[in-house]
Fold:
Amino acid sequence: MNMLQQTLRLLWRDWVLEWRTRYALSGILLYVFATIVLVYSALLDIQPQVWNALFWVIILFAAVSAIVKSFVQESQQRQLYYYSLVHPLALLVAKMIYNTSLLFLLSLLSWLVLAFLTGNPVKDTGLFVLAIFLGSMGLAIAFTFISAISAKAQNSATLMAVLGFPVIIPILLILVKIGANALRLMQDTAIGGDIIILVAINLILLSVSILLYPFLWRD
Amino acid sequence: MQKLIRQHWWKALGVLILIYVFIAGMLIPLKPGITLVNPSSTRTDTEVVVEVEGYNTNFDQAGESIRMWLKMDDERSIAAQQIEVLGPTKAKAAFRIPAYLPSQQKVQDFALIIDNPVDGATVRPNAVLVTQDSIDQELGEQQWKNDPLTNLHVRDGITFPFRNILGETIRNTYFHVSLWLAMMIIFIAAVVYSIRHLRTLSLDYDYWASSLTAVGLLLGGLGLFTGGIWAQYTWGTFWSWDIKQFTTLIALLIYLAYFVLRRAFPDEAQRARISAVYNIFAFVALIPLIYVLPRLTDSLHPGNGGNPALGGEDLDNTMRMVFYPAVIGWTLIGSWIASLMYRSNKIEEQLMDQWEE
Amino acid sequence: MGRISPLSQLFLTEDKRSPEKGGRFNKNIDFSPVKQCIMKPFSWIATALFFLLSMPMANAQSGSTDFMRSMGKMYVVVAVILAVFIGIVVFLVYLDRRLTKIENQINDHG
Structure:
């Protein structure tokens, strides 16, 4: 099997596993629901700015909890099995695509739930969907790489949070800005520039991860 | 390298350079400048008396030989009719603004130039804004009585440039900016050692990488702190969520996480490999964070958000004399500290090896 | 080990037994003179700094109007900065010498 086939096969495997247990999906949805109910009861009326901030905070925590398991859940034997069978990049790219799609799906679902409970102030849907997509990609790439690093250590969850936190701040800042734009909270004519920045960050993270992952693989 | 870290000449050099930087940077006086021009706006066809306050000036010593101009552009200026000196730093000048200006703009800005043999020539750009009641460029050109700038004096001695708002704080350039540049050099060395470690898997390089990263963090932290102090006096607050302040803080946090990562691995060889990988990643993140992102958005920092970058406008020749040695000095001191940390790691390793025998 | 610098004599005690005989390299060194050596000048500098920094602070908001008049204070500021810096450098020199000594001991032993 060449690398592309390996990647697709691994990706399919991850999705099938997820679908069987629906662990991540249900967990995150529960989390979203709980957060919204809490905030709603505290504020009673969610202003668009709060909605924007709330949405991205939910996405952030969804990302952390969903992606943390991606490398950790693989047991030692399974890792050895992979090592002998597949090209390391195939595994990494498969995980990244899986995480991106998972996060994208989760974000859309969160958006739906949030809209259902508190209304949908999004005016520019296309821009928002684009933001969600790029954001999911960026967060997924960053966290997958960090997860690969921290899976080697014992207390991975905290380590992942500490390592990941500074890296995703720029991504989140831009996402909030684009989100605010989509909600028509502010008019920013240079929004195209921000989008390009997001794409660029994604590409940089992606290339760094791809370059460095083989070294991690040897462990 | 082993021999180099035991020699003392470069350490003494670093110390001496920094002593020079401290003394020269703080004691060389600023060039005379203009701090106040009142009124700062006027109309055409008026006699305006401008009150001027200078910095480091000696108007009283210059006495009668002071001359002032309002300069419109390189070829056209208006000379003061009458100048009254009130003190070493205060003076009043009367200007006659003609009825028509050779300009299409509704509001034309004029720079104020003061020249006297004691202080030399000083300029304050955009000192006076003149609003034209009626715009007629051709008439203005015909009627323009030009008083060209001639025989501008040059003051003897070495001085640092005077900038509005900054004033004396321009000296902070020798500390704040040089610390950042030294930090960049140290981080580059750290990433080089990380790469070398991944290629050879020698623990030596890992010790170097971690020591250099620690020193880089120290210099970066100092840079951030000096930047905050500077901001307190020029921008009003220590931390203003300026994009460059913020992204550099993130870059430093990423490097801080490097040390958290190191503590999570008890096995030395594994720790070395993983932290080398993370160091490379952190460096790759550093470059866009510090240099690219701030340039793209609005920023109060010079060199970003549309302001001209360091070099050219911001660094005078006299400042370069102190600035480049400062960078070298901080780098040398930083390498000294890193070498000490490296050596103590090495000693620990050797002792462990010995005791295991 | 003939020449021991006066600085080192501050903290070396007589027990220089090697690990085989029960002594340990660094635990026998008495740190208290070293602490005094460092803390005393620091506290002096700290008091000086405190008094000196409280004075120019008042001027700072007005933009340090006349540099020439406060030139006297400027010399003090430079002196303080140099004192702190020299203090740090002296500490680094002490560390450097200490490490060299330990390295030589290891090389002689091993």
